[in-house]
Amino acid sequence: MRRRLRALAAALVALPLAFAAAPSAHAADPTTMTSGFYVDPDNSAKRWAAANSGDGRAAAINASIANTPMARWFGSWSGTIGTATGAYAGAADRVDKLPLLVAYNIYNRDYCGGHSAGGAASPSAYRSWIAQFAGGIANRPAVVILEPDSLGDYGCMTQAQIDERESMLTGALAEFNRQAPNTWVYMDAGNPRWADAATMARRLHEAGLRQAHGFSLNISNYITTAENTAYGNAVNRELSSRYGYTKPFVVDTSRNGNGSNGQWCNPSGRRIGTPTQLGGGAEMLLWIKVPGESDGNCGVGGGSSAGQFLPEVAYKMIYGY
User: Fold this and answer.
1) Residue 194 needs a FRET pair 20 to 30 A away by CA distance; which of 63, 156, 238, 305 works?
2) Which superfamily does CATH assign the domain made up of 47-319 to?
3) Any idea which residues carry the catalytic annotation?
4) Is 194 annotated to bind ligand?
5) pLDDT tens digit string along 274-300?
């Protein structure tokens, strides 16, 4: 792989608070080892546009969504997970690009919400799965979002279940630090309207944030970048005052161009946001959720399942109606 040193001056200027302490459990910086972000050649928008080239919506979806660097989500559907993550990270490495991966298979996933319920069969099964996930990436450069919703989804859980979940996340971070030294891992921290900053800082810390590179915000949600940035900085203030360290954060901007109308599950009138890039008020702005993929059987996605690509929803997101 080529080692291209790229200055992160813009990101550093934008994030003085987030860099007040050593941001990572290890020194490798995957953004300096690659020449930009990887476009998933098999993302759902690209697949739909290729299969429906005669559809009047295909050109806009292809131009505005399908060729934007986005994350690929990995779970029980991914087959042998080490093979899957290895193939994906390897494909990105061969073209000198930085891949974005989401680990989404924690035991009792979406336990309280239910729209994306599932995950590994047991805590031990998850430990094995995430170890293979990290081992597949190995020493290739990568960015990993670790288990969206896992720290916000506490409302119906017992303390024993919370402890169990935090132990799985701490163990996952240990595996990445051991096996994937050129990967930045971001623990998911929900969004500004889920838990207050003090609560989220405590949950992150108890789940092992000190071992991670940083935390992620707004995954699969619609809240503005400005509101997420203010929240991320508030979480860092709590981390600093309570535990003596801060961390960089990233924001999912894939669907926040019009902000939120208060609904999280397939709301109408939303719009795509700032494409994946370094900086922008956070360490990085990333497209984690593919615009047009359903949140579940709800809202304008009634009758769909979570993750199903809905071309009409995607098309309307391009124009904001």
Assistant:
1) 305
2) 1, 4-beta cellobiohydrolase (3.20.20.40)
3) 149, 295
4) yes
5) 999 999 999 999 999 999 999 989 999
